[in-house]
Amino acid sequence: MFDLIVRNANLPDGRSGIDIGIQGTKIAEVSTTIEAAAKEEIDATGRLVSPPFVDPHFHMDATLSLGLPRLNRSGTLLEGIALWGELRPTLTREALVERALRYCDLAVTQGLLYIRSHVDTTDPRLVTVEALLEVREKVAPYIDLQLVAFPQDGYYRAPGAIEALDRALDMGVDVVGGIPHFERTMADGAASVEALCRIAANRGLPVDMHCDETDDPMSRHIETLARETIRFGLQGRVAGSHLTSMHSMDNYYVSKLIPLMGEAGINVVPNPLINIMLQGRHDTYPKRRGLTRVRELMEAGLNVSFGHDCVMDPWYAMGSADMLEVGHMAVHVAQMAGIEDRKKIFDALTVNSARTMDLQGYGLEKGCSADLIILQARDPLEALRLKPNRLAVIRRGKVIARTPARIGELRIDGRPQAVDASDYSPVIPNPPTRKD
Fold this sequence. Notes:
alpha/beta
């Protein structure tokens, strides 16, 4: 007797007609036909069943603060930073917790059950850290929340930032963060990378740095981060987020840089929505896209995962906690429209991001945690195109959210009465695998 069986599922790897049997909080069986009963059954009706979405780069302390204390009129990164600096002294633990919990409610309905959030440690009150530690505990039954100690105004640049980051880590923050390109000089930025990697090595913690979030091709802190990763033996435990300066670097330098990043096992976390919005602001035309070299990094074997970064905050007035919106943008900006390309994009929202966060028990195999989502789509390609409803969200074997199927009602004589957009994908016999 199973507690739950999800029947007739399509899996991201292309398997179809699959049953998933769940006992307690674990997946107990995955096969074409499970000849057993269950306390509850869900018929996926040939829809896509995926492990939950994972966001490896977010700012939960700022989310849903749009308009406080004013709007970002220019829409630029620097005005967003200045605006956050105005808001920060007024933050209260209660307001931070309330906004973060509301965001987590939204995330669950979108099938987003794993989030890594950077937490600003610039204010010596560390009210942001206190609030997000409280949120991490409150949401633990339904969201795994990792926290990054993030010296947003610079580890060396902001007064008291060094001591505040140490206190945040002592309080239980999970990951060491940084922002070397925001230090006063390139030398200070490189020194901050060395210092922060040393702290991570001494404490046995991973590293996740905002790195080279600029159009300046001479912002090369990712090179230093890769070197220090190797020096301190942190291979596989370090993420470089944004890396937008790579879109402006010359190809020869990048041909040397990417292998170094691969040697260091750097996890790469672009943020397509925010990068395309904030970068290239000094350009007239031609105008740079703002996204790092996603295709080249993937082809070199680096682990690339996508972050949402911001939702309705000083930097980004849009967003909906939908990681498929992030992937949809990545398909366009990275010009990765081929069949195999789009499969890789979907992986960057799920399994790759799980690897970045070092999630244990993630996946759809026997023995994995019984965390999964049923989407109103047949496969990952269709999911990226439609950004469909999450028909069911399951956490540790329990259904924690449902959304009705999105069906259009048509009132035209001689035409169907109901329209389901997920029924419109053509069936392509022997689809090509060329990366175009």
